[in-house]
Amino acid sequence: MLSGSDNKKAKGLNSQPPPAIDQSDQTPHMFVQFWRRVYRPLGFHKGYNFPLCWLPFSWKSCQILTAPGFIFGGALFGFTLAKLSYLNIGGNASSSFANSASPGEWFWYRNGIYRVGITIHLATILPAGLLMPWQFLPVIRHKVLMLHRINGYAIVILVIISNIGAVMIVRRAFGGTLATQAGVGVLAIMSTVSIALAYYNIKRLQIEQHRAWMLRAMFYLATIVTLRLIMIIAALIISQSSNYYTTMECGSVRTIYNTEPQKIQSLYPQCTQPGSANDTLIMVQATFGNGQPEQIGASLRMNFGMALWMALLLHAVGVEIYLGLTPRESNRLRQVSYERQMERGMKHPGSAGLTSDRFGDADPWKPLKEVELAGPGVPRDHEKDDTR
Fold first, then answer.
1. What is the pLDDT of residues 168-199, one digit of tens each?
2. Are 336 and 205 in contact (CB under 8 A)?
3. What is the dihedral of CA 208, 153, 97, 108, to 10 degrees?
4. Cα–Cα distance between 83 and 122 in angstroms, integer?
């Protein structure tokens, strides 16, 4: 995401895709040949990068890393498409947010600050979810770099605004437990900081760090997909027992049975007693399978916080594994960063951005030409005798 003034200098940023490396002398079998015809026109030069970024499953992603392949690009895009009807927030359609949200949730989002928050969140995060996977298609970066930049700026703005909306509603989201509030807060901080670092690094032409931080941001944001899977599975598990209960507000129950007040009288008479308010709490059994609507809602809100933390952990670990599996691409992009930074006359070329050799104890990075000139007999920095 470079500004227009950087366009000329960064012309070669991604215009030179890495050459394909033939790792086998044998002729690939028919499936590999077919697979290459699928991913190479999109700009991918490694068989595992395409499924890790876009497809839910493949033979190669299964061998390397199944979880990110399932939730990374294609699943995020599909999940967002499925939720686009939520933009009709308070409509009467069955697919609107009001009628499709977890039972009882709409009570808090009908008006006031929570209605503003949910509107901001959905109106920004859904478009961001549609735009983000395209940032990782190499063919766009190689051939339509300006589109990559414009799309990137749009994503940055949308995600930051959506995080503001998420923080506004977190007190009431799925019960608003402390686990939920802390999880949403941490996710908002992690995604915002990752995007900010990605933006800073690309302005410093530190391309490999820009790539790493944008990947982290996308993995973190895709937590919502894995969260839903874990939440539903957990709800089915706890439904096997009749010993799980949680609290729900009378207002939520009244919203569910707004046309059937007799059910409220028979199921939750506390909510019909004189003096009962919308925030009066009642105990509801958590049953997902064959339960009443409020029981389904209770089973989801009961484990939302747990599912959020589990999904966030999986994604945080998964993206670091993926980055660790692609060191060649990082090294190539760092060499490109060095060349661009040299052209711009920046200090510390190759490390002008936020790199570990400037702020940690990593060996100072050297460009490829210096390494080749030094030869194999020259000791590396960490091998030199330091008597200070």
1. 999 999 999 999 999 999 999 999 999 999 99
2. no
3. 90
4. 9
Q: Is the pLDDT of residue 58 over 60?
A: no
Length of the chain counted residue by residue: 388
375-388 confidence digits (pLDDT tens): 665 544 444 444 33
Cα–Cα distance between 71 and 77 in angstroms, integer? Answer: 9
Residues 6+ apart with CB under 8 A from 381: 363, 364
Assess whether pLDDT exceeds 60 at residue 52: no
Q: Is 288 helix (H, G, I), strand (E, B) or coil?
A: coil
- pLDDT of residue 66 exceeding 90, the answer is no
Which residues are paired to 248 by β-bridges? 282
> What residues are paired with 284 via a beta bridge?
246
Is a pLDDT exceeding 70 seen at residue 368? yes
**C-alpha pair distances (Å), 79 with each of 34, 189, 243:** 27, 22, 32
pTM: 0.78
Structure tokens at 116: 């503003």
Q: What is the DSSP string of 340-351?
A: HHHHHT-SSTT-
What is the distance between the alpha carbons of residues 73 and 39, in angstroms, rounded to a whole number? 14
Q: What is the Cα–Cα distance from 260 to 253, expressed in whole angstroms?
A: 11
Contact 146/129 with Cβ under 8 angstroms? no
Query: CA separation (Å) from 286 to 173, 240, 267, 297, 324?
Result: 17, 10, 14, 8, 41
Find the helix or strand (DSSP H, E) in which 282 lies.
strand 281-285
Q: 186: Cβ–Cβ under 8 A, 6 or more apart, which residues?
A: 312
8 Å CB contact between 72 and 222: yes
Q: What percentage of the chain carries pLDDT values higher than 70? A: 76
- Of all helices (H) and strands (E), which one includes residue 248? strand 245-249
* Sequential DSSP letters for 143-185: H-HHHHHHHHHHHHHHHHHHHHHHHHHTTTGGG--HHHHHHHH
Whole-angstrom distance, CA of residue 211 vs CA of residue 326: 11
**Structure confidence by residue, pLDDT tens digits, 198-254:** 999 999 999 999 999 999 998 999 899 899 999 999 999 999 988 899 999 999 999
